[in-house]
Design brief:
With 339 residues, the chain is α/β, with parallel strands linked by helices. It has 12 helices and 13 strands. α1 packs across α8 and α5 packs parallel to α6. The chain binds nicotinamide-adenine-dinucleotide.
Length: 339
Amino acid sequence: MNNKKKILVTGVAGFIGYHFVKKLLNLNYEVCGIDSINNYYSVKLKKDRLKNLFNLNKNFYFYKVNISNKKILRKIFNDFRPDIVVNLAAQAGVRDSLKYPEKYLKFNIIGFLNILELSKEFELDKLVYASTSSVYGLNKKLPYKVSDPVDHPKQFYAVTKRTNELMAHSWSNLYNVKTIGLRFFTVYGPWGRPDMALYNFVDNILRNIPIKLYNYGNHFRDFTYIDDIVEGIYLSMLYNMKKLNKNQITTDVSSKPFTLFNLGSGRKTSLKKFVKLIEFNLGKKAQIELLPLQLGDVVGTTANINKTKLELGYNPSTIPEEGIKKFIDWYKFYKKLDY
Ligand SMILES: NC(=O)c1ccc[n+]([C@@H]2O[C@H](COP(=O)([O-])OP(=O)(O)OC[C@H]3O[C@@H](n4cnc5c(N)ncnc54)[C@H](O)[C@@H]3O)[C@@H](O)[C@H]2O)c1
């Protein structure tokens, strides 16, 4: 036992949840993890991440639960009595939200409603939750600033995440639930998601399958390395919300305990450069298929992280040259590749 805060993390078998909980367990926090372990991508990868967490230490409890099930969720809150909740569980991915909007509604909105209601009922110290750069949607002005208007989402995934932010605002105002929303920008790194570009490109190049570059390869992203994201979530978890009113530098309209941060690298990298770095690290050329822009896709993202730096002391440090190498080293180790 220790006198540190008790942390409940949802989406713990996911890419970001896994890395975040690994940090918490290494720092000796007591952590309760929740995940539905859905089959959106490899269940084996999710179970392997969980296995690693169980091997770390004994302060980790896990429940295979969908956050849209309020009854079971309440029992877990009641038994564990968390001080802080970090909600990372969601149906991620932009493209599937065009095909299966009902799933996004249930997991991302009903699920989050349950998290908010229980945060109120159990009087948490704080709720930190995942949002996304996708909320900036059709905005033209770059880099995206957290105080920019975000009224023009491109797809339903972004709508569900923006809805989460608005719900958090309302629960903060009505019930004083202390909420911090984090807008993540294209996260990459070891143990990453097979549905995202880096994993998919490396996998295809090694198997001599052409990689698809939409918008004829003219995309750019603020690629953010997983360790920087984990540090940003951790700093949010420690952030003293009382500072908000004194140190407000955004146009957050309320004086209630609600705020949002961009978690990006603040750097813009073209997809073409990203592919070149992958080729360099693999020592192999990609076969490239150039295709038009996909429905719902955003052409480019870059984060303005001034507020995050000033208020949280966030200082992302990993450049794509290092991060891509770390991913490829992990990929070869995980797939037991010997080259
Ligand atoms: N990875 C990124 O680049 C990125 C960018 C922006 C926002 N986000 C957000 O960050 C969070 C974590 O993303 P990730 O990349 O780790 O995704 P992920 O898919 O790897 O992890 C999400 C986990 O949540 C679980 N889950 C989904 N719906 C659930 C539900 N209703 N109840 C319980 N568990 C559920 C899934 O099984 C999965 O293991 C998500 O909310 C995502 O929308 C991620």
